Amino acid sequence: MSAARTSAAIRYTAMRIAIFVGCLVAVAVLVQFGVLPKGLGDSNFVWVVLLALVLSAPLSFVLLRKQRDAMSQQIVGKVDQAKARLEANRTQEDGAVQ
């Protein structure tokens, strides 16, 4: 069960990285061929990374909705389990004190 929990987070993160890398490659190619302007002076690499970040963020938001929801549900379940364990421990301690 915990493997499934980790896999949703890992899958989502891997897909976010893949979208960013795809945008990075696409922007680098477009800058190289002059379709997009190059950065000022030596800032070309920073310019390409920033453009890739700006493009990948909304793409990830739209394309990874299902994965984000699955990961969120797993996180909520894990938090609920932790709260239940904490409450059970607190109840046991209160019973032992009295």
Automatic annotation (TrEMBL):
Domain of life: Bacteria
InterPro entries linked: DUF4229
Transmembrane segments: 12-33, 45-64
Pfam family, one: DUF4229
Keyword Transmembrane attributed: yes
Keywords annotated in UniProt: Membrane, Transmembrane, Transmembrane helix
Official protein name in the record: DUF4229 domain-containing protein
